[in-house]
Write a structure and sequence with these properties.
It is built from 9 helices and 8 strands. It is of the alpha/beta class. The strands form 2 sheets. A 5-stranded parallel beta sheet has the order 2-3-1-4-8, with helices on both faces. A 3-stranded antiparallel beta sheet has the order 6-5-7. Helix 1 packs across helix 9, helix 2 crosses helix 3 and helix 4 runs parallel beside helix 5. The structure holds adenosine-5'-diphosphate and adenosine monophosphate.
Length: 206
């Protein structure tokens, strides 16, 4: 099963992808995670990506598409995949269609007014990558899974977020219609608690 998770920054794509990957035994492929790993490793791709990510802009399509194409060609994707954060433009979707069939696109719908708090309150474990939100951390600063220190993503600041939300509206939101026309769109209400969103996705995926 080849599945795409679509939604604005902070909609809960990563949160749901981790749960869905465990339930369906599918690899979770996040282009944002791939770029952050490259930035950490100071690779040439990381250097290019950082210059866009820091400004809240999209990394150019040709760079992103090539990374995804290579990743989907790996053995673990033979059973399918969960793509989180890709495609983000119609041209990325068109490129993807040339090398992979898409079975379902889950559109996690969250009102724009809720997204700023979701993003600026996000905390990640620096060691295992687990994701949290300050609203439910009760002041804790360590990961409950591995004890690692919780950190904030460099691009999860108010100035960059404003740009990211604008980029989403202009460049990514048109994908909702694109995949609706392709007959593969499943929309879920993302403005509900994490378990409820998960149950809804599983029910609609069948
Ligand atoms: P995305 O991958 O779409 O950018 P995340 O999955 O990282 O978004 O979620 C952004 C933040 O919102 C995280 O701090 C996460 O814990 C929190 N979050 C995710 N889903 C929900 C939800 N349904 N209700 C409340 N908070 C959520
Ligand atoms: P994310 O982790 O999905 O929030 O992505 C973090 C940042 O990585 C985005 O704001 C973009 O700058 C970049 N990025 C991630 N996925 C893509 C993509 N499909 N196309 C272009 N840029 C991307």
């Amino acid at each position: 099963m080849n599945v795409i998770l679509l939604g604005a920054p902070g909609a809960g794509k990563g949160t749901q992808a981790i749960r869905l990957a465990a339930k369906y035994s599918l690899p979770h492929i996040s282009t944002g995670d791939i770029f952050r790993a490259n930035i950490k490793g100071e690779t040439p791709i990381g250097k290019v990506a950082k210059s866009y990510i820091d400004k809240g802009q999209l990394v150019p399509d040709e760079v992103t598409v090539q990374i995804v194409k290579e990743r989907l060609a790996q053995d673990d994707c033979k059973v399918g995949y969960l793509l989180d954060g890709f495609p983000r433009t119609v041209s990325q979707a068109e490129a993807l269609a040339e090398f992979s069939k898409v079975d379902a696109v889950i559109n996690i719908d969250v009102p724009l007014t809720k997204l700023l708090r979701r993003i600026t309150g996000r905390r990640l474990c620096g060691k295992c990558g687990a994701s949290y939100h300050i609203d439910t951390l009760s002041g804790k600063t360590e990961c409950s899974k591995c004890g690692g220190e919780l950190i904030q993503r460099a691009d999860d600041n108010e100035a960059t977020v404003a740009n990211r939300l604008e980029v989403y509206e202009k460049q990514t939101a048109p994908l909702v219609e694109y995949y609706e026309n392709a007959g593969v769109l499943i929309t879920v209400d993302g403005d509900a608690d994490i378990e409820k969103v998960f149950t809804d996705i599983v029910a609609k995926l069948g």
